[in-house]
Amino acid sequence: MIITEQKPFEEILKNLEGESKIFIVGCKLCATLCQTGGEEQVKEMKEKLEKEGKIVTGWVIIDPPCHILETKKVLREKESEVNSADAMLVLACGGGAQAVREASNKNTHPGCNTLFLGVIERFGQFSERCSLCTECVLEKTKGLCPITLCTKGLLNGPCGGAKEGKCEVDPEKDCGWQLIYKHLQELGKLELLKEFQPAKDYSKLMKPHKRILERKT
Ligand code: SF4
Ligand code: SF4
Question: Which domain of life is it from (predicted)?
Answer without folding.
Answer: Bacteria
